[in-house]
Every structure is written in structure tokens, then in C-alpha cells.
Amino acid sequence: MTNDDKTSIETSLAQACHYIDDVTGGINPPLQFSTTYARGADYEYLSRYSYTRSGNPSWEVLEKVCAELDGGVEALCFASGMAAVCAVLETVNSGEHVVAPRIMYHGSQDWLRRISARRSIGLTLFEASDLDALRAAIEPGKTSLVWIETPVNPTWDLIDIAAAADIAHEAGAILVVDATVSSPVTTRALDYGADIVFHSATKYLNGHSDVNAGILVGAQDDERWQDIKLVRTLMGGVLGPFDAWLLLRGMRTLFLRFEKASQNALRLAQHFEHDPRLEKVLYPGLESHPGHDIAKRQMTNGYGGMLSLLVRGDAEQAKMIAAATRIFLRATSLGGVESLIEHRASVEGPHSVVPPNLLRLSIGIENCDELIEDIEQSLSRLNQQ
Ligand SMILES: *Cc1c(COP(=O)(O)O)cnc(C)c1O
Known about the structure:
This protein has about 375 residues and is of the alpha/beta class. The chain has two domains: about 50-250, Type I PLP-dependent aspartate aminotransferase-like (Major domain) (Aspartate Aminotransferase, domain 2, 3-Layer(aba) Sandwich); about 255-385, Aspartate Aminotransferase, domain 1. Helix content is about 35%, strand content about 15%. It is built from 14 helices and twelve strands. The strands form two sheets. It has a seven-stranded mixed β-sheet with strand order 1-7-6-5-4-2-3, sandwiched between helices. A five-stranded mixed β-sheet has the order 8-9-12-11-10. The chain is globular and about 80 Å long. It starts with 8 loop residues before the first helix and ends with a helix. The model has no long low-confidence stretch (mean pLDDT about 95). It binds pyridoxal-5'-phosphate (PLP).
């Protein structure tokens, strides 16, 4: 494998960092399912592996590709996005304070609330689109971790990563960025000063809705990073060999998939932007979106495939539109090759702060005219009521 700075990420991804197997010359890594590794007669290890939970060959190419993709010193794969989120948050000590957006991925916020309640960890939530609110949320001497997500799910508000990093660092805190929705194709959070970037690899990185996985990439190999590694080993949220293999396979087409999804989403957003049946179309690629200026700077290779439609009407009418689609599949999740639609408040449950008339769309790589036509025919049901 090469780690040649001159190679573009696009090329590097397609070739899985120019992987060539040492033993066979194969251009894809082999699968090694062993959970344990033999020792020699003198009890010495025969390789650097001893037991699968503390490290195994199936993670290595994947983690190299991910580290290179985000420009970090090292990447760690986990059994799910949430396993990675929890591993980071496990390094926050009692008495410390965490800052996070008010609207964010609900699972991460649920975990933050849980550790805050059980371990005397302070938690302040801020309005994602307001940097002053982030500044005000900091408790000097106590805040040790600032968690952001950009674009924020499901309003797709943008957070300026460089500005957030300055605010966090001034307070002596680290900045962790959930970049699941932007993906490293368009935003490399570490380049803007983040300390750790997180991806639910279940989404764009894998891209085929068939692997649950999480990735962390660190900007520095420090004490906290080593601690996160230890948490992975001891809590055991480790990725299985076949899932690691599938994820790497999916990532080889990440660029193509993300570009096509971004093109489709932009066209769809523009098509419906002024539709009278909708209150608003939320998409960072639209000039009308409040985060568009930051998106222009921070999303350098497309605005991604995620958008939300605010229906003129209530939850029932929003659900009726979702019920009428023929191509969009009614399912949660995002970042797959197939387009999905969901009534987000129903998915998040009774504690959801998401507007009741919001439909979240994950745009895939299908024919864009057909996607637009599908939403058109679904919206036309609304008129007939
Ligand atoms: C899906 C998701 C997660 C959680 O990842 P899992 O792989 O489902 O555990 C975290 N953050 C965001 C933004 C997500 O979309």
C-alpha cells in the first residue's frame, strides 16, 4: 500500500490505497475469520495478532483507507456508528461538561443524556445555526468536549467547523465532528481543525444499506485516542471481518455514489423549492438555505443527498405523502444507493423536536426524472383532499 500525498482521494479510494496482497498479489484483501492466533513453542506470537477483539487483519486496509480519506493519523472501525460514538463519550469524566447541538442524531443525544444523568457530566445543548449560542454554552474550566454534527440531521443546518474548533480549543476542549451526512468526499473535518471525526459508516461509506459500522479518525495519537482504542477492546464493539470487507468494497465507489446523489438531490431540491404545496425545502445546496454560505466553503464537492420537505399541513398530511411514493422506499437510514423517505418525527418518537410536517429524504443514485416524478405524484394526492 502506498500513502502517496500526490494521489487524489478519488483514486486512492477506488484502489483501496493501491492494495496488493503480499502473499498472493490479490488486489483485494483476503478474509481472516480466526478469533485467536497461534503461538510458537516458546510461547512467542507468530504475528502481531493474538485475539480478534484487540486487533485483526480484516480491519487494517479499511482503517488505512479511512485515515487517508480524512487526513488523520489513524482510523478505528467499530461494530456500529453508535459503538464509535459511545467509545468517544466513554472518555469524558464525571464532573466534566459536554456541549452538543439541540437538534442532532437522536441516538447520540440519547446517549449524552444518559451519561449526563448517571455520571454527573454536565450537558448544554445549543442551537446549531448559532455560533454565539455555542460560545455561550461553553463552561470555562469544565467543558472538555464539544460535539457537533454538520449538516445537522434533519434540518441540514451547517456548523462552521473551523469556528467551532477555535471556540472549543480556546476553552481547552476537543472538537468531535459527526460528519456522517457530509462524508469525507465533500468535507474533511480534520482539515478545519476538528480533533476527531466520526462517521456512521452504515450510511455513505458503505452505501448499500447492508452493513452496520462506525469509523473514528483522529487528528493526533494522544492519550485520549489511546483510551478510545482501549474502550473499543474492552467494551468489545468490534467490527466483524466480513462486515469490514463489505465496507471496504462499498467504499471503493464512495466518490461516484456521493457525486450522483448530490446531483440528484440538488435537482430535486431546485425543482420543488417554490412548490406551493410545500412550506419549505431544506437543502444546503439551495441559496435560500440559511447554511448555504458555510456549505459553499465547507462542502467542497457537492452538497450531499440529504434533504427535507416541510409539507404545508400537519403530520397526517406529511405521512400521506410518504405513503404514496412508488420509487422512494419508506425506511429510515440514509446514504444508500436507493432513495428513502421517512416521517422523521414518527421515527424519533415522542421526544422528537423535529417539526411534525417534516419528511426526510435520502436521495440515491436512481434516475433523477423518475425521483422527481415520484414526489410530484405523491404531492398531487395532497391536492385531492
Ligand atoms: C446513523 C447515524 C448515527 C448512528 O450510526 P449507526 O451506524 O446507526 O449506529 C450517528 N449519526 C448520524 C448522523 C447518523 O445518521
